[in-house]
Specification:
Family: Belongs to the cysteine synthase/cystathionine beta-synthase family.
Distance between the termini: 57 Å
Number of domains: 2
CATH architecture of the largest domain: 3-Layer(aba) Sandwich
CATH class of the largest domain: Alpha Beta
Organism: Nitrincola tapanii
Shape: globular
Radius of gyration: 19 Å
Pathway: Amino-acid biosynthesis; L-cysteine biosynthesis; L-cysteine from L-serine: step 2/2
CATH topology of the largest domain: Rossmann fold
Catalytic activity: O-acetyl-L-serine + hydrogen sulfide = L-cysteine + acetate
Largest sheet: 6 strands, mixed
Number of strands: 10
Number of helices: 8
GO molecular function, one term: cysteine synthase activity
Strand content: 15-25%
Helix content: 25-40%
C-alpha cells in the first residue's frame, strides 16, 4: 500500500486562477483581473464559506455527522453546502425561492439535499424566515450564512491571501458583488491589513434589477456580518448591463460565468474609468452553465 498522500475533494476548494481581461478594452492603462471562482469543485465562490461553516461548527462540537443542517439560499450557497454536507456526512435541507434556475435545483438534489421552495413573492426573506421556523421546530440546525462569522472568515483565510499573493501585493482595488456580503467582508479585512490604501468596491443591484446573487437588502434583513466601514464605495449595477457583459465575457474572453459575474466586470470597468495605472481585481462568482435554462445566453 502506497503512503503517498492524495487530496480529497475538500482539498480542492480555493487556489482558483486569476486572469486578465485581454480583448475587452480597459481604459486609462489599468489592469482588470478576474478571480475564477467557478473553478471550485461545486462551481462557485460559495464553496469556501460552505466548507468553512460546516468544518468550524463541527470543530466546536455544534454539529456532528448525521445531523440535519438547514439553510436558506438563492442557489450557489445551497449547491456548495450540499457538496460539503455530502463530503462530511450531514443531511441537508435547503430552502429557496421557486424562481431560481432549474440547473441550481438539480445540482442540489444531485448532491442529496432536500429542497423546500417558497414563492417568488416571499423571496429570500421568506426563505430565511422559514429556515428559522424549521430550526425552532427541532428539524435541524441553521448555519445562517447571513450572520455566521465563519462565512467571512473563509475569505479572510483564503480569498484575501490568494489575491495578495497572486498580484504580488500590487492589487489596488477589489470589486465584489454583495449578497450575504461574506466575500467582501473577509477579503476586505485581509487586504486592508496588508495595505490600508486598497479600495474596496461593493456592488448592489440598481432599483428594479434582479441579479441572482446580488441583493439590496431591506434594513431588517441586512446580513449581520456586514460592516459598512469595510466597503469604500458602493456601485449600483443595472441588470441589462450585467447580462450584456456576461455574454461578452463568454464570447470575447472565453469566460463562461453568471449574471453577477457580468455585473462584477461592469463594476471593475466603472472603477477603471475613474482611476489610472491601477490593478483592479473582481470576483467571477460562478459558472455560466447553471443559467442556461433561463435563456440569458440566447443569441440577441
Amino acid at each position: 500500500m502506497t503512503t503517498r498522500h492524495y487530496p480529497t475533494i475538500a482539498d480542492c476548494v480555493g487556489q482558483t486562477p486569476l486572469v486578465r481581461l485581454q480583448r475587452i478594452s480597459v481604459p486609462n492603462n489599468n489592469l482588470v483581473l478576474c478571480k475564477l471562482e467557478g473553478n471550485n469543485p461545486a462551481g462557485s465562490v460559495k464553496d469556501r464559506p460552505a466548507l468553512s461553516m460546516i468544518s468550524l461548527a463541527e470543530a466546536r462540537g455544534t454539529i456532528r455527522p448525521g445531523d440535519t443542517l438547514i439553510e436558506a439560499t438563492s442557489g450557489n450557497t445551497g449547491i456548495a453546502l450540499a457538496m460539503a454536507a455530502a463530503i462530511k456526512g450531514y443531511r441537508m435541507k435547503l430552502i429557496m425561492p421557486a424562481n431560481m434556475s432549474q440547473e441550481r435545483k438539480s445540482a442540489m438534489s444531485a448532491y442529496g439535499a432536500e429542497l423546500i421552495e417558497v414563492s417568488r413573492e416571499e423571496g429570500m426573506e421568506g426563505a430565511r424566515d422559514l429556515a428559522l421556523t424549521l430550526q425552532a421546530q427541532g428539524e435541524g440546525v441553521v448555519l445562517d450564512q447571513f450572520s455566521n462569522p465563519d462565512n467571512p472568515e473563509a475569505h479572510y483565510r483564503t480569498t484575501g491571501p490568494e489575491l495578495w499573493q497572486q498580484t504580488g501585493g500590487e492589487i489596488t482595488h477589489f470589486v465584489s458583488s454583495m449578497g450575504t456580503t461574506g466575500t467582501i467582508m473577509g477579503t476586505s479585512r485581509y487586504l486592508k491589513e496588508q495595505n490600508p490604501d486598497i479600495q474596496i468596491i461593493g456592488l448592489q443591484p440598481a432599483d428594479g434589477a434582479a441579479i441572482p446573487g446580488i441583493r439590496r437588502w431591506p434594513e431588517a434583513y441586512l446580513p449581520s456580518i456586514f460592516e459598512r466601514p469595510r466597503v469604500d464605495w458602493v456601485l449600483d449595477i443595472q441588470q441589462q448591463d450585467a447580462e450584456n457583459m456576461m455574454r461578452r465575457l463568454a464570447r470575447e474572453e472565453g469566460i463562461f460565468a453568471g449574471v453577477s459575474s457580468g455585473g462584477s466586470v461592469v463594476g471593475a470597468l466603472q472603477v477603471a474609468e475613474q482611476t489610472e495605472n491601477a490593478t483592479i481585481v473582481c470576483i467571477i462568482c460562478d459558472r455560466g452553465d447553471r443559467y442556461l435554462s433561463t435563456g440569458v445566453f440566447d443569441p440577441r
